[in-house]
Amino acid sequence: MRLILKGTVGLILLGLAYGAVTFFQVWSAARRDQARAAQAIVVLGTAQYDGRPSPVLKARLDHAVGLYRRKLAPVIVVTGGSRPGDRVTEATASADYLLARGVPDKNLLREVSGGSSWESLAAVAAFLDDRSIDDVLLVSDPFHSFRIRAMADELGLKSRTSPTRTSPISGFREAKYMARETLAVTVGRIIGFRREANLREANLNEVVPIRV
After folding, report:
1. Angle formed by the axes of helices 90-99 and 55-69, to 10°?
2. Fewest beta carbons within 10 Å, which of 39, 46, 154, 203?
3. Three-state SS for 18?
4. Domain that holds residue 77
5. Residue 81: what pLDDT?
6. What is the pLDDT of residue 208?
7. Rounded distance, CA 38 to CA 17, Å?
8. In a 10 Å sphere around its CB, with 0-12 CB exposed, 13-18 middle and 19+ buried, how is residue 5 labelled?
9. Are 160 and 38 contacting, i.e. CB atoms less than 8 angstroms apart?
10. What is the predicted pLDDT for the residue at 146?
11. Looking at the domain assignment, is residue 149 inside a domain?
């Protein structure tokens, strides 16, 4: 019993240490901007309101415009499908926002089916491969950086992250998101990010049924 108790305590301490290291990696990635020349800028989608980007999505798009104007990539890829009741997709709202800020339509690509970061990145990887593009600069909120790069690596993309610095998510809210990302990264490393995304989606469906 004493050996079992020691083993259990050891496993708990090991798990806590692993979680702490992973949290530090998520936090460190959130503070690091890896902006550099790439073949495409990929903006991860999030909520939009009847074609108008939410403040969180707007911050990501404004950052992508800045990278584009610095000529770090010739193409911006916007991502995200629609939720039940939406009339437009996140990608469409994002593209319209970028068009209004001078990004030519020929320099925009739209991924309009993804319901999660994994689904969007998987779709992006597929259609960029058709265009011989695999070197991308990922734009999202800081807390999201580590996980989306890990996903991109799993999908065969050469990626770096350049998180927005104007997101309205900050302070205690950001800390909560980082804790959630730490758990997602921990699980994704063990079972793979594709399975982690599927597991997350299944849990969401149990709480809120999604029409398909």
Report:
1. 50
2. 203
3. helix
4. 29-207
5. 94
6. 35
7. 35
8. exposed
9. yes
10. 97
11. yes
Instruction: Give the DSSP letter of residue 206.
Output: H
How many domains would you assign to the chain?
A: 1
What is the spatial distance between Cα 31 and Cα 193, in angstroms, rounded to a whole number?
A: 22
The answer to whether residue 152 sits within a structural domain is yes
150 to 116, 186, 192, 206: CA distances (angstroms)? 15, 11, 10, 26
Q: pLDDT tens across 113-141, in order?
A: 999 999 999 999 999 999 999 999 999 99
pTM (2 d.p.) = 0.89
Q: Is the pLDDT of residue 66 over 70?
A: yes
With a cut of 50, say whether residue 21 has pLDDT above it: yes
d(CA 152, CA 77): 14
In a domain? residue 137? yes
Among residues 152, 177, 181, 180, the alpha carbon closest in space to that of 167 is found at 177
Distance, in Å, from the CA atom of 167 to the CA atom of 54, rounded to the nearest integer, reads 11
- How far is the C-alpha of 190 from the C-alpha of 13, rounded, in Å? 18
Helices (H) and strands (E) in the chain, counts: 7, 7
Q: Does position 57 have pLDDT exceeding 90, yes or no?
A: yes
Residue 65 falls inside a structural domain: yes
pLDDT confidence bin for 52, thresholds 50/70/90:
very high
CATH code for the domain in which residue 148 is found: 3.40.50.620
Determine the length of the chain: 212
For the chain, how big is the Rg over CA atoms in Å?
Answer: 18
DSSP 106: G
